[in-house]
Amino acid sequence: MISAVLFDLDGTLADTALDLGGALNRLLAEEGRPAVAYERIRPIASHGARGLVELGFGIARDAPGFDDLRLRFLDHYEDGFCNQTVLFEGINPMLEALAARGLAWGIITNKPMRFTDRLVPTLGFSVPPAVVVSGDTVGVPKPDPRPMRYACEAMGVQPGACWYVGDAERDIAAGRAVGMRTVLADYGYIADTDHPETWGADWRIQSPLELLALLPPKQV
Question: Catalytic positions, please?
Answer without folding.
Answer: 8, 10
